[in-house]
Automatic annotation (TrEMBL):
Membrane topology of this protein: Multi-pass membrane protein
Membrane-crossing segments per the record: 214-235
Compartment annotation: Cell membrane; Membrane
Presence of the UniProt keyword Lipid metabolism in the record: no
Organism: Gilvimarinus algae
Superkingdom of origin: Bacteria
Entry keywords, A to Z: Cell membrane, Membrane, Transmembrane, Transmembrane helix
InterPro entries: Surf1/Shy1, Surf1/Surf4
Claim: Transmembrane helix is one of the keywords in the record: yes
Protein name: SURF1-like protein
Entry's family note: Belongs to the SURF1 family.
Length: 250
């Protein structure tokens, strides 16, 4: 019996699959490349954070332009009359708020302090009791740069205190208390006696997560490329014949 002639690879275009590949393959590759770029940015930021957080705390008053993630020490007292509750903050799956207060330092502008998290009450109308801090105190914290999200705001429907907000905006909050505020805010260290539940998430997404997303996009691009190759050629038949011929030879 004459052996079968080996099949040659032939191109048999499938217009539908080709059209999908032309649209989605560049998109998937672009998304993967973008995530790799974001991963590199986050790696640099993580290294910067680690370097700054390893320093000993410095007096805030000595810093002309405090850099984000710099550990600082501030002496003064809390403004207990003005408290904001940063909404939609969860810990361990429980809804709650982060407590933000103005702090009056011994020198310089008032600065906003994020003291940490408190659980929400069983009813939306039942706000948590915020522990007051009376008199002179020393706090340890880190500088945080204010972020801006177009759908969030420090404006509040309440005219009494505490006020519920969805974003820290010093300029808006300064108008509410009639006092100037620093353009950044501080996030309390757990070692401060006035700290509530801290456990801060340093970044909303780590470099490792971005790398993982990049791998997923590239894997999808690879799968689409393989699907396109098989759908537009007789590669599947060629491979099956070669396996069969190899099996007979053995």
């Amino acid at each position: 019996m004459k052996p079968h002639k080996p099949l040659s690879l032939m191109w048999t275009p499938n217009k539908t699959i080709l059209a999908l590949a032309l649209v989605f393959l560049p998109l998937l590759l672009a998304l993967g490349t973008w995530q790799l770029g974001r991963a590199e940015q986050k790696r640099l930021l993580e290294a910067q954070m680690e370097q700054r957080q390893s320093r000993a705390p410095v007096a805030l008053a000595t810093l002309q332009t405090p850099e984000p993630y710099t550990p600082v020490m501030v002496e003064g007292e809390y403004d207990n009359q003005h408290v904001w509750l940063l909404d939609n903050r969860q810990r361990d799956g429980r809804p709650g708020y982060e407590v933000v207060q103005a702090f009056i330092p011994e020198s310089g502008k008032r600065v906003l302090i994020n003291r940490g998290w408190l659980a929400a009450g069983p009813q939306r109308s039942q706000l948590p009791d915020v522990p007051r801090v009376q008199g002179h105190t020393t706090i340890f914290a880190e500088v945080v740069e204010v972020s801006d999200h177009p759908l969030l705001s420090a404006s509040s429907e309440q005219h009494s205190w505490p006020r519920i907000i969805t974003q820290i905006e010093p300029a808006v909050m300064a108008e509410q208390i009639g006092e100037p505020l620093a353009a950044f805010y501080l996030r309390l260290d757990a070692s401060s006696s006035s700290a509530l539940r801290t456990g801060w998430a340093r970044l909303n997404m780590s470099s490792a997560k971005h790398s993982g997303y990049a791998a997923q996009w590239f894997a999808m691009a690879f799968a689409l490329a393989v699907l396109t190759l098989f759908a537009n050629s007789n590669l599947g038949e060629v491979l099956r014949q070669r396996r069969a011929m190899k099996g007979r030879a053995e």
